[in-house]
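Technical annex, item 7. During the second reporting period the consortium partners agreed on a shared format for inverse folding records so that results from different sites could be compared directly. Each record opens with the tokenized structure and is followed by the designed sequence. A conforming record, contributed by the partner at site C, is shown below for reference.
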């Protein structure tokens, strides 16, 4: 039994022993699962950390970007702000100095700078003027900080929906910043600076102070700055007395001052003013009935502007004013020699003549100069339209005067000992390679000096030039006021050396001045704003340029030109002398002449490469000269051409050259055939 009992036990142990490996496998499997699970759990933890690290990385990079962005913005602001102007100095600066140019009778010709304007505070101005400006230019002026994002967005929507630029987003403060401190260029830099300055202005000043500065500095056309200057220019009253219509008209000019000011176009000004009145209704400042009443004719604009009278002359004067008085830094009044009625007639007559005949005859331009015998400029027209061209054809253009220069040669001949009745040969001859010919290609034989000049004969003139010599001709020209260069060329006797109309008219004014030296001038006096005289033209004594006997002879010869010669169309109802001139290929036509009261010159011409249709100095220029002189002498009694009372001590000494000898005359005859 004992054995039986052992065996089972022993089997049991064996069984147990046999089962152990299975259990071990099972437990190993279970352990493997547990290990696998254990291994899986650690994998989840790095993924979470990775997500957190990405977010952290993004946050850190964002922070870095923000820091560097701030640095970049700050750097840009420093860069753009580096060359900003001195703001305090610019704000404190007064309005630009004004120069007002007056005619001889005290009437205004033109003004430069801030004209007539006085500084005004916003609270001193009519409410409707300020409302008109705000309703039209910046309706949210009292609500923004210098830059108006709402206004910019609204402007963008309006412009995109209309397909074109109809509204701007700039505030009044931005406009002030731009006008006061910055150049008009359109660049990103300038726009950034504009925003910076606008914010600074809003921080520095109150809204009313900004409005005050703006209204005193804004440009409003025809050279005026500020609402007070505009009110005085366009409505002849200070800004404090402007009506609703007038205030709206001034506000309307802000969009395009040169187009909408009443002096440029009263029609355009009215239309623009009506738009401003509608803006005021939409902004709630006035009701429709008030707007309609104002637009129907209340306060009709009156420019008071002379329409550009003597603008070429005014520019010429302004170029010379600094030589007589300091022009910069203070308001000045320049009193000139211009006779406004004569100036107005000269401008109208020249424009009318060119409009009537210009296109058909190939005349593209013209000019007029009228002098008093002492050289005072009574009228100067530098071209038919200052608006089209500011180039002064009376002064800046240098053209060939043609036969209008011949009196210089004949005066030289008189001073060499000849007289008006002396004869000179009108027959073919040559000077070197040059063989002069008359305009009509005819030869008349011996002719008197008077007839040769009256009929504008080229051959006798060239013979006189040869007789008296080049140097004498040039010396006489200098005494008459010519400043041109004269090449040593015989053709200058027929007017091939360029000259200006003012230069040529000055030479003839010497005869109107009884042979006295003439220096043309346009400024009588320059005064400061407070009335201090800074310059007054000194009274100068008379000094001879030509002696008495030759003056009388030239009077007789130049009168013959008008009485029976090439200048017959210039004949007027009093003694007058003059001479026509026509350059080669009909490019220039002149008539210059004088009386006891005035000397005047008229030029008409084609372009540099063109030619007129047979226009000579004795035709249209002579006719215009006649018409101008008739107006200039209206109410003046006829007077004889002047002679010096007695030979002055400063009379020029004239030495006659030796008469050509027999051999010289024989050689001349042989050379001329």
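Designed sequence (site C submission):
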């Amino acid at each position: 039994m004992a054995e039986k009992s052992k065996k089972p036990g022993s089997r049991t142990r064996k069984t147990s022993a046999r089962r152990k490996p299975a259990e071990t496998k099972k437990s190993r499997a279970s352990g493997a699962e547990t290990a696998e699970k254990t291994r899986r759990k650690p994998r989840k933890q790095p993924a979470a950390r990775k997500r957190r690290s990405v977010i952290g990385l993004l946050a850190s990079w964002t922070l870095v970007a923000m820091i560097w962005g701030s640095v970049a913005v700050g750097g840009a602001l420093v860069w753009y702000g580096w060359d900003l102007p001195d703001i305090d100095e610019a704000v404190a600066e007064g309005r630009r100095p004004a120069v007002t140019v007056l005619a001889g009778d005290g009437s205004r010709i033109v003004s430069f700078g801030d004209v007539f304007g006085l500084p005004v505070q916003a609270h001193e101005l009519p409410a409707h003027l300020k409302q008109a400006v705000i309703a039209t230019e910046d309706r949210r002026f009292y609500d923004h900080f210098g830059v108006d994002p709402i206004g910019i967005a609204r402007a963008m929507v309006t412009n995109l929906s209309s397909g074109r630029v109809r509204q701007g987003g700039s505030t009044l403060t931005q406009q002030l910043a731009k006008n006061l401190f910055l150049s008009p260029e359109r660049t990103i830099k300038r726009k950034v600076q504009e925003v910076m300055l606008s914010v600074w202005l809003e921080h520095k000043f109150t809204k009313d102070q900004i409005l005050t500065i703006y209204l005193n500095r804004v440009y409003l056309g025809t050279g005026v700055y500020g609402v007070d200057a505009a009110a005085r220019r366009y409505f002849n009253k200070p800004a404090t007395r402007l009506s609703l219509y007038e205030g709206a008209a001034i506000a309307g000019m802000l969009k395009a001052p040169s187009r909408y000011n009443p002096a440029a176009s009263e029609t355009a000004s009215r239309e623009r003013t009506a738009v401003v009145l509608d803006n005021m209704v939409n902004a709630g400042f006035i009701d429709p009935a008030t707007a309609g009443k104002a637009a129907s004719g209340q306060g009709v604009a009156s420019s008071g502007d002379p329409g550009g009278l003597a603008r070429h002359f005014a520019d010429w004067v302004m170029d010379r004013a600094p030589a007589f008085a300091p022009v910069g830094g203070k308001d000045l009044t320049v009193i000139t020699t211009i006779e406004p009625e004569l100036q107005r007639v000269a401008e109208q007559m020249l424009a009318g003549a060119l409009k009537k005949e210009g296109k058909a005859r190939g005349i593209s331009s013209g000019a007029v100069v009228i002098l008093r015998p002492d050289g005072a400029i009574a009228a100067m027209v530098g071209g038919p339209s200052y608006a089209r061209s500011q180039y002064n054809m009376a002064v800046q253009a240098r053209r060939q005067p043609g036969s209008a220069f011949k009196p210089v040669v004949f005066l030289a001949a008189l001073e060499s000992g000849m007289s008006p009745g002396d004869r000179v040969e009108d027959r073919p001859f040559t000077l070197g390679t040059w063989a002069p010919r008359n305009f009509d290609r005819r030869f008349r034989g011996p002719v008197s000096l008077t007839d040769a000049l009256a009929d504008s004969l080229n051959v006798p003139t060239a013979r006189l030039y040869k007789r008296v010599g080049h140097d004498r001709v040039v010396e006489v020209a200098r005494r008459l006021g010519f400043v041109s260069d004269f090449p040593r060329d015989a053709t200058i006797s027929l007017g091939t050396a360029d000259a200006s109309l003012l230069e040529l008219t000055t030479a003839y004014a010497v005869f109107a001045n009884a042979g006295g030296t003439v220096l043309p001038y346009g400024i009588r006096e320059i005064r400061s704003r407070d009335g201090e005289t800074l310059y007054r033209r000194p009274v100068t004594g008379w000094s001879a340029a030509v002696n008495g006997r030759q003056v009388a002879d030239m009077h007789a010869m130049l009168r013959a030109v008008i009485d029976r010669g090439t200048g017959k169309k210039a004949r007027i109802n009093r003694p007058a002398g003059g001479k026509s001139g026509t350059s080669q290929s009909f490019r220039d036509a002149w008539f210059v002449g004088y009386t006891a009261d005035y000397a005047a010159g008229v030029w008409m011409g084609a372009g540099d490469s063109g030619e007129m249709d047979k226009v000579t100095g004795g035709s249209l220029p002579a006719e215009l000269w006649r018409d101008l002189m008739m107006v200039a002498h209206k109410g003046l009694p006829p007077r004889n051409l002047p002679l010096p009372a007695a030979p002055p001590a400063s009379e020029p000494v004239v030495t006659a050259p030796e008469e050509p000898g027999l051999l010289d005359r024989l050689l001349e005859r042989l050379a001329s055939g």
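The first helix runs from residue 2 to 82. The radius of gyration is 45 Å. All partners now use this format for quarterly exchanges.
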